Amino acid sequence: MLSCKEVATRASALIDGELSTWEALQIRLHLAMCKGCDRFVGQIRTTRDLTETIAAPEPLDEADNGRISAILSQLDEGKQQGG
Amino acid sequence: MGKADADETELVQLLVAGDRPAFERIYRKHNAALIRVATGIVASRATAEEVAQDTWIAVLKNVASFEGRSSLAGWIFSILINKARSRAAREGRFVSFDGEGEDDNLAAAFDGRGRWKDMPDLWEEVTPERILAGRSVMDHVAAAIETLPAAQRSVIILRAQQGLEAEEVCEILGISEGNMRVLLHRARLAIRTALDGLM
């Protein structure tokens, strides 16, 4: 039987569906009997979901508009010098 | 051609034509992530902002030659990584993305037989909106990502947040897929530990 440490090492692979059927089954058997690992895998799943939750891009502020203008004017200068 | 591909082709055409609203749209979508990735590689936030700005100039100069062999985002981030690495080298810094020498932070949680020394806590209702220690969970997640080593930070931003394909992330960072998975797992472990400390 897998140890808790081995299960924890494979937690991301399990929730990302990257394990073979046999490996996933071994871990699920362990989780059915081990509350600690079951909680840990739940925590890693929550962590994954939170890190994949993307906040909507913030609106452009004055500084961003200034940077965009600087980028575009630098390009225009390059074009004029080149052409 | 899928809708996403068609949208990207249209966006590229607009960028080639010098359309400012199209540039503003893509800048808004990626600029913060460009700076966050670069900050892990160069010495300071100010330098990272410069690297991001240089990246945008290179993107607009060369977008006409973008052939769609990768996603547009993947192409932009590969330019950023190259520029950030060159800048780091000029600063006398060498940044490796293979993650060697980085331990995960979990080894001490187990006894000699690989069993938990202390059982992990049950997390209840951890939603993005939940407030912990005066800040939203998402603010804590963002802060934890800021503290990750460059390799883990790059993988979690590119793969989990920017949604790049695994293959693309590996190519951009020059790492194997197995290595990328290890880095992603370590990044999650570090963020999980940061959140667990607040529960």
Notes on the protein architecture:
Chain B: It comes from Aminobacter ciceronei. Chain B: Residues 26-93 form the RNA polymerase sigma-70 region domain. Chain B: Belongs to the sigma-70 factor family. ECF subfamily. The complex is a heterodimer of chains A (83) and B (199). Chain A has 83 residues and is mainly alpha-helical. Chain A has a domain at 1-55. Chain A is built from five helices and no strands. Chain A has helices at residues 4-9, 11-15, 21-33, 35-51, 62-82. The termini of chain A are far apart. The mean pLDDT of chain A is 89. Chain B is an all-alpha fold. Chain B folds into two domains: 3-90, RNA polymerase sigma factor, region 2, helix turn helix motif (Rna Polymerase Sigma Factor, Chain: A), CATH 1.10.1740; 107-196, Orthogonal Bundle (Arc Repressor Mutant, subunit A). Chain B has helices at residues 3-16, 20-39, 45-62, 72-90, 137-146, 150-161, 166-173, 177-196; strands at residues 131-132, 135-136. A two-stranded antiparallel sheet of chain B has the order 1-2. The longest helix of chain B is centred in the first third of the chain and has 20 residues, at 20-39. The A-B interface holds A 3-6, 8-9, 11-13, 16, 18, 35-37, 39-40, 42-44, 46-48, 50-55, 57-60, 64, 67-68, 70-72, 74-75, 78 and B 18, 20, 23-24, 27-29, 31-32, 53, 56-57, 60-61, 106, 109-110, 113-116, 119-123, 126, 128, 137-138, 141, 145, 156, 160-161, 181, 184-185, 187-189, 191-192, 195-196.
